[in-house]
Amino acid sequence: MDDVFKLKNKNSELLKVKVERVNPVPTTLQLRLLCNMTAEWHEDFRPFSSREYQSLVADIPMAYASS
After folding, report:
1. What are the boundaries of each domain within the chain?
2. What's the N-to-C CA distance of the chain in angstroms?
3. CA 27 to CA 2: how far, in whole Å?
4. For residue 23, what are the contacts with CB-CB under 8 A and spacing of at least 6?
5. Maximum pairwise Cα distance, the chain
6. Phi and psi based region of residue 30 (left: phi greater than 0; alpha: psi -120 to 50; beta: remaining)
7. In this structure, are residues 20 and 38 in contact, taking their beta carbons and an 8 Å threshold?
8. What span, in angstroms and rounded, lies between the C-alpha atoms of 23 and 40?
């Protein structure tokens, strides 16, 4: 979500959100809306670069990566 707010604060005109589908009750609230978000960003913007998106483990042994 951090990236979304960065884009919105930089230029909200470049961020578009469109509702694709509304799921009816009894669907839970967190699954009620399916949205499509598109954005244009400047060259200096790096999505998923904040700490919350960094790897928890730097190197994964090949034995685990291929299974």
Report:
1. 1-42
2. 31
3. 27
4. 31, 32, 33, 34
5. 46
6. alpha
7. no
8. 28
Alpha carbon 33 to its chain centroid, in Å, reads 15
Name residue, tokens 């967190």.
30
d(CA 32, CA 52): 26
What is the pLDDT at residue 63? 66
Extract the tokens encoding 61.
């042994």
For position 56, what pLDDT does the model report? 77
pTM of whole model > 0.85?
no
For 7-61, what is each residue's pLDDT tens digit? 888 888 989 999 999 999 999 999 999 999 999 988 888 888 888 888 777 666 6
